[in-house]
Structures are given as structure tokens and as C-alpha cells.
Amino acid sequence: MTESRRKVVPVLFLLLGAAVMAVPFLVTVANSLKTFEQYISVPPQWLPNPVEWANYGEVLQREPLFWRFAMNSFVVAGLSVVGCLLTSSMVGFALARLRLPGRQALLAVALGTMALPTVITIVPSFVLYRQLGWLDTHAPLILPYSLGTAFGIFLMRQAFLTIPRELLEAATVDGANPWRAFWRTQLPLVRPQLATLGVFTFMASWGAVLEPTIYLTSEEKFTLPIGVISLQGQYMGNEQIVAAAALLSLVPMLIIFVAAQRYFIRGVVSSGLKG
After folding, report:
1. Domain limits for position 96
2. How is residue 185 annotated by DSSP?
3. 179: domain CATH number?
4. Nearest-CA neighbor of 93 among 186, 164, 191?
5. Do 45 and 77 belong together in one domain?
6. Largest pairwise CA distance in the chain
7. CA 32 to CA 226: how far, in whole Å?
């Protein structure tokens, strides 16, 4: 079997997987451009005719809370990214380069938390945030990321391990303390991994539904995903407008991914070079 024929099966498998994932998205795009009569027609009308671009204008111009939801999501996701990048890189550097007793055990414990489903920790977390008086605030949505994530710590540790140790030793000989060596000589060399972690964190925080649903009760504090869900009651009988709002909520994630794509791919590839 030639090399080109051996590649046919994996390519077909990938194309099939891409089609399975793309179909729901394309159906939502089509639904967002229909009238309600087209939306509920039987048999289904797959393509909108005429195309109702006004559905998007309905969301942007007549729904003031949509902009409030979007701003809340930007604040929560932005602070989560900044906090996660700072703390995860610091912990990752410490586990990779500093002589800490039990650092392998600490890494194992951190990685072990990745096996815990969120639903298991949601009740004790709710009790903790209630004792702190943080319910119906954005703090419970930002804090878990700002204290570092297990994935972020692992990713950054792997990144720092790929940097020659001699660079850190040279900085130390020149009189740099651990913080200065980390900030000035090590952190600039892991920008692809930082971009990767930033994209993952932004997407996770922006698209979170479970935590905002549990911790937030005031509508003006809703983030965009649960804000869009709340519109279903208001636009009952106009579900095509809710579909348009859901697609608009994806735009920031797509912009972030496209802007950081070059660093994102490089960071994913290089993160597994050394264990």
C-alpha cells in the first residue's frame, strides 16, 4: 500500500468527525436566519428563504441586557485569564526549576484534581462562597482560575523544562533572585504556552454555564451563556432570535482563537517535548 493510500483512511475519519461536529453549528446558523414560520415548518426547511438578517439586529438593538451580559463575561473571562497565567506560570516554574521538597508529590496531587468532576466539588464550593458572602457576585467565577488550574500548572511546568537550565544558572550568577530570573529570563521564552493557556482559560470561563447558574441570581450580573438561556422565556415563539443571540455569544471566542492561533499550535506541540 502506498503512502498516499495509507493516509486516505485517517483523512476520511477526520472529515467524518469534522462533519459530525459542524452539522449542529450549521443548523443553528440556518435557524438564526429564518422567520419563525420557517423555523417551525414541517417538513423542516433547512435553508432560510428569505434570509432574516434582522434577527441579529433584534438582539443587538432591542435587548439592552445582552450588552450587560457580554460585559460581565468580558470582565470574568479577562480577570480569569490574567490570574491563571500569572499563578500557573509561577507554580509551574517552581515545580520545574526550584529545589522544593516533595515537588513531585505536589505535582501528582495537582494533576489528581483533574480527575474530579466539577459536580463533586460544587456543593462544598457553594458552602464556602456562602460563608464568604460571595454568592451573587463574580468572585466565585474568577477565583478558581486565578488560583491556578491543574492543567495550567502542568502545561507551564512542561514549558519551563524545555528551557536550558544554563540560562537560569547564568541569571543566578549575575545576581538575579528567583523572582527576577523567572520574570526576566524564563517567562518571555514560554509565550506560546502562555497564549495556549490563555485561549483555553478564556474559552472555559466564557462558555461556563454550571457555575454561573448556581452562584448568580441577579439578572444584571448574568454572564452571556446563561443570559442567552434566560432570553428563551422572553422570546418564546421567536426561538430564531435566541439562536442568533447564541451565535453572537461565540464571536469573542472565535476572535481570540484566530488571533492566538499561531502561538496556540506552537504551544500545544512544544508542551509535550519533555516530561
Report:
1. 63-272
2. I
3. 1.10.3720.10
4. 186
5. no
6. 76
7. 18
Quote the CA–CA distance of 94 and 154 in Å, as a whole number: 11
Of residues 215, 222, 242, 216, the one with CA closest to residue 231? 242
Q: How far apart are CA 156 and CA 116, in angstroms?
A: 21
103 and 233 in a single domain? The answer is yes
Contact of 54 with 121, CB cutoff 8 Å: no
Q: How many domains does the chain have?
A: 2
Q: What is the pLDDT along the chain (275 residues), one digit of tens a residue?
A: 566 777 788 888 889 999 898 999 999 999 999 988 888 888 888 888 888 888 898 888 777 788 899 999 999 999 999 999 999 999 999 999 888 888 889 888 888 888 888 888 889 999 999 999 999 999 999 999 998 899 999 999 999 998 998 888 898 888 888 889 999 889 999 988 898 899 999 999 999 999 999 999 998 999 999 988 888 777 777 788 888 988 998 898 888 888 887 776 666 666 554 44
How many whole angstroms separate alpha carbon 194 and alpha carbon 90?
12
> Torsions phi, psi of 117, nearest 5?
-65, 150
Q: Are residues 132 and 12 in the same domain?
A: no
Q: Of 74, 77, 69, 75, which is closest to residue 224 (Cα–Cα)?
A: 69
Annotate 47-83 with DSSP letters as a single string.
S-SS--THHHHHHHHH-HHHHHHHHHHHHHHHHHHHH
149 and 17 in a common domain: no
Q: How far apart (Å, rounded) are the C-alpha atoms in residues 239 and 224? A: 17
Q: Provide the whole-model pTM.
A: 0.83
| Beta strand residue intervals within the chain, DSSP E | none
Q: Do residues 136 and 215 lie in contact, with contact meaning Cβ atoms separated by under 8 Å?
A: yes
